[in-house]
């Protein structure tokens, strides 16, 4: 029986373990927190990323190691790769951990990005603002997620406030200043590549963020025309360049009808959760298949899907549980402000039925505002 090892024990590891079970795959998870939510569905090794004794034992018990958490230190990934197969390769992880390396690679692969400049000092920031202009976003190069480690500059006069907020982190890991893009739409492409180089992308997903955190996804994204072909081509170029095996996500802005690369996630992604019920094969199942050397499954969508993220605390599950083809996901985490604690996916054969189901659920939950952007698009 194949054994999948996962570094990080959050909801992504939990959903990977659940997807692996019907394939006969056993999962073993490592996390520094004894209450990591994947531990409710798979055995958990409690260890931190430099506990090499525990990691050696973990490596000896698994066939392949993969990631729930993209910020596992590169040294840990390299150390493991000397002992056991690691997918994606540590080199791909390293690029995705650094916004500067990531955006540089995007441009090399033909994917345009927002204007950006590396910032290490207060003087750099002044020069970067002169070059990029305002509005702009100052971001930590490493370790940011869910909009953390970012400061939005409305005008050039916000430079001191931005430096006060992030300067200390800049000294440690470096910063990047990006032009703020008044995008028309935000999209993501979830892609998978097998060991043999079989490459597939699910239909593009349209995403809406609130305060830097994903709130709502709609898939397949309506009215994307030739963007699907273009996004697939770019994702394939990236995957081949990185010799990538497994699932990854590419976050994109659409500006003046053209794609700009925001960031990539070297793992399964929140905007791909809809694939569990909304596609023939989910991102989680195809990731497990890819890293264990199994053939990939069909990535086609069944109708349309809309996913709500539950942030901070779960709403009443009843409206979702009682709606046809609506699916409840409780990650088993403690409620905490800003934390992703669950999601729900609503599927339907067409836009009209999806709008009906969304309206009904959002109204009963008192979440009309959260569903509004998708309802507007569905017409
Ligand atoms: P994630 O949780 O996706 O890893 P993150 O903390 O890495 O998030 P980003 O993806 O860089 O952060 O930014 C979060 C969101 O903020 C984006 O999805 C987008 O909505 C907005 N954003 C980020 N950068 C820009 C930009 N340059 N212009 C306009 N909006 C932006
Ligand atoms: Mg990110
Ligand atoms: Mg992001």
TrEMBL record:
Ranges for domain ATP-grasp: 103-292
Keyword Ligase carried by entry: yes
A biological-process GO annotation: 'de novo' IMP biosynthetic process
Transmembrane parts of this sequence: none
PROSITE patterns from the UniProt entry: ATP_GRASP (PS50975)
Leading EC class: ligase
Metabolic or biological pathway: Purine metabolism; IMP biosynthesis via de novo pathway; 5-amino-1-(5-phospho-D-ribosyl)imidazole-4-carboxylate from 5-amino-1-(5-phospho-D-ribosyl)imidazole (N5-CAIR route): step 1/2
Top-rank lineage group of the source organism: Bacteria
GO molecular function, one term: phosphoribosylaminoimidazole carboxylase activity
Keyword Nucleotide-binding in record: yes
Protein family (similarity comment): Belongs to the PurK/PurT family.
Protein name: N5-carboxyaminoimidazole ribonucleotide synthase
Source species of the chain: Frateuria terrea
